[in-house]
């Protein structure tokens, strides 16, 4: 009898936040702080991925539609969530450039300027629209209070 094999797909999301002082020239600056976080793929994000892979409808997380999302809720991540959990302090911003894909990884980068998202960051994630979007994944991490600095958030996703 032939041996049965099983392929398993997984998603591992990794976020890196680099914090810069407001007057730094980002082409030469060294961040004053670097933080990392791990994610949870949300059920709606997995459904979106399957819809896009198998030809159904869905809005891509591309250079036009993709958004980096940050908020102030420290509510634990749960697969059934569909958005950031923050009630008021949440912000979505387009990626700096289209996501880069290499092998089994995708990387999205967004720079939050000095006047953007100035509140305590406790959650982050990826979405496919400025509002009313599908939230793909969610990170819960005490990133700190942003107040007039430039922060660059990079999220790397790996299919395993």
Explained architecture:
The protein has one helix at 43-53, and strands at residues 11-20, 33-41, 67-71, 90-94, 100-102, 105-112, 120-127, 135-145, 150-159. The two termini are 29 Å apart. Helix content is 7%, strand content 43%. A hairpin with a 2-residue loop joins strand 5 and strand 6. The chain has one domain. The protein has a nine-stranded antiparallel β-sheet with strand order 4-3-7-8-2-1-9-6-5. By secondary structure, the protein is mainly beta.
Whole-number mean pLDDT: 90
Shape: globular
Number of domains: 1
Give the strand content.
35-45%
Radius of gyration: 16 Å
Number of helices: 1
| Straight-line distance between termini | 29 Å
Largest sheet, described in full?
Answer: 9 strands, antiparallel
Structural class: mainly beta
Strand order of the largest sheet: 4-3-7-8-2-1-9-6-5
Gist of the model:
With 160 residues, the protein is mostly beta strands. The chain contains 1 helix and 9 strands.
List the helices and strands and how they pair.
Layout: E1 11-20, E2 33-41, H1 43-53, E3 67-71, E4 90-94, E5 100-102, E6 105-112, E7 120-127, E8 135-145, E9 150-159
Antiparallel strand pairs: 1-2, 1-9, 2-8, 3-4, 3-7, 5-6, 6-9, 7-8
């Amino acid at each position: 009898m032939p041996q049965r094999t099983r392929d398993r797909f997984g998603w591992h999301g990794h976020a890196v936040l680099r914090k810069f002082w407001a007057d730094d020239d980002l082409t030469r600056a060294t961040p004053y702080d670097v933080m990392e976080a791990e994610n949870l793929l949300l059920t709606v994000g997995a459904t979106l991925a399957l819809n896009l892979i198998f030809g159904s409808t869905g809005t891509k997380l591309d250079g036009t539609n993709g958004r980096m999302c940050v908020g102030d809720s420290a509510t634990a991540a749960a697969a059934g969530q569909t958005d950031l959990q923050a009630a008021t302090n949440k912000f979505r911003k387009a990626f700096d450039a289209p996501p880069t894909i290499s092998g089994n990884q995708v990387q999205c980068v967004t720079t939050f300027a000095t006047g953007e998202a100035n509140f305590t960051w406790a959650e982050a994630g990826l979405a496919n629209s400025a509002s009313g979007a599908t939230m793909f994944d969610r990170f819960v991490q005490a990133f700190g209070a942003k107040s007039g600095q430039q922060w660059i958030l990079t999220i790397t996703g790996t299919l395993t």
